[in-house]
Amino acid sequence: MRGHDRINTYLPDELIVEIFRHLGSKPSRDACSLVCKRWLMLERMSRTTIRIGASGSPDVFVKLLARRFVNVRKVYIDERLSMSLPVQFGRRGGGDQAVISSLKLNYEDGESESYCLSDAGLAAIGEGFLKLEKLSLIWCSNVTSLGLRSIAEKCRYLKSLDLQGCYVGDQGLAAVGESCKQLGDLNLRFCEGLTDVGLVDFALHCGKSLKALSVAACARITDVSLEAIGSHCRSLETLSLDSEFVQNKGLLSVAKGCPLLKVLKLQCINVTDEALQAVGTLCSSLEVLALYSFQRFTDKSLRAIGNGCKKLKNLTLSDCYFLSDKGLEAIASGCSDLTHLEVNGCHNIGTIGLGSIGSRLSELALLYCQKIGNAALSEVGRGCKYLQALHLVDCSCIGDDAISSIASGCRNLKKLHIRRCYDIGNKGIVAVGENCKYLTDLSLRFCDRVGDEGLIAIGKGCSLHHLNVSGCHRIGDAGIIAIARGSPQLTYLDVSVLQNLGDMAMAALGEGCPLLKDIVLSHCHQITDVGLSHLVKRCTMLESCHMVYCPSISSAGVATVVSSCVNMKKVLVEKWKVSQRTKRRAGSIISYLCVDL
Asked: How far apart are CA 282 and CA 285, in angstroms?
């Protein structure tokens, strides 16, 4: 029967809510809420997560959201992000429309003081979201201990708290410890107002439930806090610590008192072999270890890790100048389950150390490793048949022979990222195209020996989702056309600084890559408005387009992109190329360079 509403007649609330849960994006849920009053009510009742950027009068904004979505369990507030207003519901909005208008007015008037969430906003969160389990306050610089106390007193089911960049004090953290007995995840990165007093008090009251702790750039957090963590946080599994003031004593306490530790990330320049050897001896459950900028420990530490941490799966070594091949060999012989390895700027680790790594490796990253050459990568190619991701940055001794060995031996490779490795050219990339049929993510930034020949082989052999060839000046239309024909699933493309790329490539992309969402065209001098019109004609799913320093693109081309792509969220372009009409139509999605051109 025409006009008969079968869905609302036969489907119960529970089933409609379950359907809402399977919707992948917020815009889809918002669209469903506009269908009818029943769906609006059900969508509001089923919404469990909200994300808020910087907004005019954020305290009022939070109160509005609390009235609408009463079952929210996760709140993310990041004041680095741009404003996002709630969906308007016409007459259904009732009195909320006046609030939304007020928000818009404050935002457009540029009242910067009102952009930051205050203690009043935190109080509104506490009063409105009583079922809150996860709260993230990223760089909310105006909140204080008073606001944090109001959250702690109201949200007693809180399990995760992220205070990155918030200037809260000891009293606020102590209040959280006293009231939130289920808290398991705490992020205190860049909380400059905290001292040992607050963290020790928190550990005393809430240490039993704490499983993950992150501390960075807190100048008044010392070994005293870590001793309290070691004494009271026996269930701790993850510790991320970046501090100039922590020394061996604190880390020794954690190693002795936290036997369940699985993830340890350290950037502590005053920690030495003594503490890291204790980690190797006492933390047998360790699975992830990341060591950054260590200048006072040696291969002795890695030998202890290799001997004691048999479950280690992920190892990152960054700017650890006194480590050598012997340390990496100890890891290879002792940690047979190692699957992820990153070596960054460890100048004494060379070919021998890397060649010893076991066969289970699935991801390898080598950054600024001047002593690692083709022979090491050849060993990886022969021995690591499970390798799925390879990252190479500024490795001057690695060339085509190494990449060819990887391609022939690691046929399950899915991700290959290479940047400024100037000895890698077409030969190696052709081998990748011929052998690595599962490759979906390829980045060849500023590899100036790679040209169309390499990309044509990739186009024939691989179906890419992500491609970045920024700065590969030998690549032109032929290479990108081959990619367009061979990669219909392509969603991300960066072809910036390709001086020989023109409109023919844009037309091919428009024909062959309808799923393209993000494209970077900056510094492409040959691309014109004609090419852009061909691109956007069928790439209607585009969400971002960067096109600065493209002298052949005019205001007409910018208008074409904005008017043709209804899903567009960001256009980066010179200010003088945006007409008044385009600015009125899509001013909120257009970003300009810092320098007014």
From this structure: 9
Q: What are the E-state strand segments in 217-285? A: 238-242, 263-267
DSSP 3-state of 259: coil
Count of other CB atoms within 10 angstroms of residue 28: 12
CA distances to 302, 419, 420, 582 from 448, rounded to whole Å, are 37, 10, 8, 37
Average the pLDDT over 340-369 and give the result: 90
Residues 192-217, mean pLDDT to the nearest whole number: 95
Structure tokens, 479: 């290479």
Query: pLDDT over 90 for what percent of the chain?
Result: 71
Write out the DSSP string of 480-527.
Answer: HHHHHHH-TT--EEE-TT-TT--HHHHHHHHHH-TT--EEE-TT-TT-
How would residue 67 be classed by pLDDT, with cut points 50, 70 and 90?
confident
Residue pair 43/13 in contact by the 8 Å Cβ criterion = no
Q: Are 136 and 158 in contact, with CB atoms under 8 Å apart?
A: no
- Give the pLDDT confidence score for residue 259 in this predicted structure: 94
Closest CA to 151 of 171, 69, 44: 171
CB 438 within 8 A of CB 467: no
Cβ contact 260:284 at 8 Å: no
State residue 429 phi and psi, 5-degree precision. -70, -35
Q: Write the DSSP symbol of residue 264.
A: E
**Alpha helices, DSSP H only, in 425-472?**
426-435, 452-461
Cβ-contact 228, 257 below 8 angstroms = no
CA pair distance 18, 401, nearest whole angstrom: 53
Residues pairing with 441 in the sheet: 415, 466
Identify the sign of the CA torsion 129, 133, 138, 142: positive
Please tell me the pTM assigned to this model: 0.88
Residues 6+ apart with CB under 8 A from 435: 407, 408, 411, 461
Residue 313 neighbours by CB distance under 10 Å: 18
The residue assigned the tokens 């009818």 is 36
Residue 165: both structure tokens together: 């960049």
The answer to whether residues 530 and 507 touch, using CB atoms and an 8 Å cutoff, is no
Tokens of 484: 């367009």
* Among the ranges given (100-109, 424-433, 533-542), the one the predictor scored with the smallest mean pLDDT: 100-109
What CA–CA distance (Å, rounded) separates 351 from 376? 5
Tokens 């070994």, residue located:
223
Torsion 547-553-559-563 (CA) sign: negative
